[in-house]
Amino acid sequence: MEAVFKRELQSYFKSPVAYCIIAFFGVLTGLYFWNVNLYNQSIEFSMTLGSLTTFLIFFIPVITMKLFSEDRKNGTEVLLRTSPVPTWKIVLGKYLASVVVFSCMCVETMVCPVIMTFFVNDGGVFPLAMTVGGYVAFFLLGLAYLSVGAFASSVTDSQPIAAVLGVILLIAITFIETIGETIKGTLGQILVWLSLSSRYSDFASGIFNISSLIFYLTFTALMLFITITNIDRKRWN
Amino acid sequence: MIEIRNLVKNYGKVNALNDVSFDVKKGSILGFLGPNGAGKSTAMNIITGYIAPTSGEVTVDGFDAVEKSLEARKRIGYLPELPPLYGEMTVSEYLDFICDLKNVPGKVRKSMLDDIMYIVKIGDHRNRLVRNLSKGYRQRVGFAQALVGDPPILILDEPTVGLDPGQVVEFRKIISGLGRNHTIILSTHILQEVTAVCSDVVIINHGKVARKGALSEFTSSNSGERRYVITFDTSDKETAEKILSACQTVKDFNFSRTERGSIIYRAVTDAKQAAGKEIFFNAAVANVALLELKTVEKSLEEEFVSIITRDAQEGE
After folding, report:
1. Pairs of residues, one from chain A and one from chain B, whose beta carbons lie less than 8 Å apart
2. Which of A44, A172, B34, B95 has the smallest number of Cβ neighbours within 10 A?
């Protein structure tokens, strides 16, 4: 697993893609930071993060699009799948490499709340819990999105198709909440319960909800499991 | 070392392998022959655990290739048709990654990689990016990858395709050398390659084993017949055919070609009976000089072509 993880990570940072994504995300963060926190004089950075989650729908699939499709395209899938490494380790290694790239995106945004702490007036309090909660939510949502992107990449040997499919899946997942709220009833409640976004606000408002934490992690594990199954399934085709 | 039993593989409705069985003995170099699309790569992909068979089983050193896939894979070095390379890595980074994948301990890693790079002669290119290497060198790096971890079994899918003639000869030498302490399956459609390095041959066609055996069995000395090439000093086919049909030992003959006024025939006789004498005297009686009378070995190529064409005829 370490081997796959290491190689995947190197490959991210040897091409300009990871740098471009991280840099571009940094610019967007700056714009929202200026608009939400500085211009409107709000101390809640978790709101900024909340706005940025919309962009994750587009950023994440670009990070994950190459994970499996690239190997299928250039024939290295044979190498990995005939090496003495089980599929789950290959998937996990690759997934974790994408998590590192996403973590870099998270870390760079931390500049903003750090700047804010310098401007808290005497007597004012920086909402630490809310900010930390916002980050936990942001990170967990990212993990879940990455797993969806990884699955999309395991479906095709074309990176652009993997990216587009990833975006479509993430948009669909995001709209589950809206659909659930519209149709109401039991089914509506189930859809809202299942949606990733409805659980986001708990964390973002500083409430540490253990069931939501478990939900995000379970969702991620399930998506990775489906990815592993999808790759192993090809053996039998 | 490798046992393949009743292997069947269907891709949807397409039948790629149909009841393929053969063994690869320990320490042998098996030439795996067949025309394009015969199912060679499919069979190799199954042996290496890349794909699973629809039915049948493959045992690698006692481990089932599907049930105990990881154990089986540990024992195999595989060079697929397209070398599985990462262009953005340098040669040594790439081989280091392969060592990681195959769990080669750090202590032996350096000496192992030095040995491998020496064998396939890529030491001078170790710091170059794989993407910038020529086709021949990529093939070498792919080969090096298969050798990492010193697996007892090597499976090479058309390793010399696209190499220049010098490199082809070199690769064959390397493969012969490795054959001393490895079990090798060498897929190819270059027949000279098989004659040069292999000890056993399996020919597959349309997903079935058409023929298998030791390389020596494929030549005429063991196939129960002897072949002659006869050059008559006449341009009259009728006379020549009269002479040959008068020979009781000649089972079959056919016209080969005309060359500078003389005609050349090929004849087949039983291995036990020497037909040379009879042909010679019959020709003398007919007052036709023989310019050449020689026995020829049936080449692997003829065997291969005859199997392929026979199968094609049967299929019609």
Report:
1. 70
2. A172
> B residues 82-121 near A, CB within 8 Å?
82-89, 93, 97-98, 100-103
Instruction: Judge: B89–A15 Cβ closer than 8 Å, yes or no.
Output: no
pLDDT tens for each residue of B214-240: 877 776 555 567 778 888 888 888 888
The domain locations on chain B are 2-218, 220-298
CATH code reported for the domain at B220-298 = 3.30.70.3190
- pLDDT of residue B101 exceeding 70: yes
pTM beyond 0.90: no
Interface test with A, best of B10, B14, B45, B51 (most A CBs within 10 A): B51
Query: Which residue, chain included where needed, has tokens 């991620």?
Result: A220
d(CA B131, CA A132): 44
Distance CA A178, CA A188 (A): 9
Please determine, for residue A122, whether its predicted confidence score (pLDDT) is greater than 70: no
pLDDT tens digits, A191-228: 887 787 777 777 777 777 788 889 899 999 999 999 99
Name the strand (E) or helix (H) holding B252. strand B250-259
How many domains is chain A built from? 1
In this structure, of A205-209, B41-45, B148-152, the range with the lowest mean pLDDT score is: A205-209
Question: What pLDDT sits at residue B78?
Answer: 94
DSSP category for residue B297: P
Q: Which alpha helices (DSSP H) does chain B contain, by range? A: 40-47, 69-74, 91-101, 106-119, 135-147, 165-178, 191-197, 237-246, 276-285, 300-315
